[in-house]
Design goal:
Layout: H1 3-6, H2 10-20, E1 28-30, H3 33-42, E2 46-49, E3 61-63, H4 66-74
Parallel strand pairs: 1-2, 2-3
């Protein structure tokens, strides 16, 4: 859900999706420190993809490729 759909802040849109889909263990995958800050507002884990647009040193999980990201969740 993008900001342009309802003009709400990212953390509110994430919360909406968590509630709508009844997610029990959500994680947000993003590529900027701003994404991490939005996760902090919701107290959910942040997974950082290094192949995105931004940078941060503050993350719970780090993925250096799309294959690494998908394999991580496939193996759970």
């Amino acid at each position: 859900m993008s900001h342009g759909m309802n003009y709400k802040p990212k953390h509110e849109n994430i919360k909406y999706l968590i509630d709508k889909h009844h997610l029990e263990l959500p994680i947000y995958i993003g590529d900027t420190d701003s994404d991490k800050k939005q996760c902090d507002l919701l107290e959910i884990p942040f997974g950082f993809v290094t192949y995105g647009f931004g940078d941060t040193d503050n993350y719970k999980l780090r993925f250096d490729s799309f294959d690494q990201l998908t394999n991580y969740f496939y193996e759970l």
